[in-house]
Amino acid sequence: EYTVLSPYLSSTIAMRESHSKGVPLPFCKPSHKLSREFGALAEKLIAAESEGRDIKPKVRKTTQKSQEAET
């Protein structure tokens, strides 16, 4: 069982590249799709916190195999 927050974060090799450079992806590749997804997720979490809302993520049952098929 995995906890899933929306917006979803894509899987990409750019994350590995930024890790190898030791630079966070939004600084390494600010216009990359995953950088934008992280920004959207951060904005959602910050807005919920400032409004005093508790984010209740969707919970779905999945297996490692089905998760790999989604990427």
What would you note in describing this structure?
The chain has helices at 13-21, 25-28, 33-50, 64-70; strands at 2-4, 58-60. With 71 residues, the chain is mostly helical. Strands 1-2 form a two-stranded antiparallel sheet.
Please name the defining characteristics of this protein:
71 residues, mainly alpha, two-stranded antiparallel ribbon, 4 helices, 8% strand
Multimeric status of the protein: single chain
Count of individual beta strands: 2
Strand order, largest beta sheet: 1-2
Label the overall shape.
flat
| Average pLDDT reading | 81
Distance N terminus to C terminus?
Answer: 17 Å
Strand content: 5-15%
Query: Roughly how many Å is the radius of gyration?
Result: 14 Å
Helix content: 40-55%
- Helix/strand-derived category reads mainly alpha
SSE topology string: EHHHEH
